[in-house]
Design brief:
alpha+beta, Uma2 family endonuclease
Length: 182
């Protein structure tokens, strides 16, 4: 058996291995040493990302910055994730990479990544100590937010359709899920 070029013959992949991935237009992430490859997002996903980015930028405090993917968040040597959107302290966003953790990681769900985002990535951000995590569903317009309480996520806010979504973490914001997909 011949090992694929650039991959170790056995064992989990690392952040260094991730750096050898080809730039093929797909998203490449590591979750506990396993490679996750995601296709180019569809229009509803990108519309929700764009609209949410604009709304977050309007509400963001001066000490924080909103960033779009791709931006690697190294949670460990074998877990490197790229949330669709993140909010981080400005001083953590120097140079080529983010240093430290975001205060908010946001995933916009897609049919092919829904379970990864809702279960595996959420758990990874929780273990790493990311203060808040949101899941936005453009297909069934909704937003669900969790915040870290001790070492586990608890429900913070949620809304569907034209309901109002309100949270103060990491800054006060009010959204309506329906507006993110128009």
């Amino acid at each position: 058996m011949i090992a694929a070029s650039g991959f170790p013959p056995s064992g989990p992949l690392t952040a260094a291995d991730l750096g050898t991935m080809p730039d093929d237009g797909h998203g490449h992430e590591l979750l506990d040493g396993s490679l996750i490859v995601t296709p180019v997002p569809a229009v509803p996903h990108q519309r929700a990302v764009g609209n949410l980015y604009l709304r977050l930028r309007e509400a963001c405090s001066d000490d924080l910055e909103v960033m779009l993917t791709p931006l690697d968040i190294a949670l460990s040597e074998i877990t490197v994730l790229q949330p669709d959107l993140l909010v981080a302290p400005r001083d953590a966003l120097e140079g080529e990479q983010m240093v430290g953790l975001p205060v908010l990681a946001i995933e916009v769900l897609s049919p092919g990544t829904r379970l990864i985002d809702l279960i595996l990535k959420r758990a990874a951000f929780e273990r790493a100590g990311v203060a808040s995590y949101w899941a936005v569903d453009p297909d069934r317009p909704s937003i669900t937010a969790w915040r870290l309480d001790g070492d586990e996520y608890v429900s913070d806010a949620s809304a569907k359709g034209d309901e109002s979504f309100r949270t103060d973490a990491p800054f006060p914001i009010e959204l309506r899920p329906e507006e993110l997909v128009r």
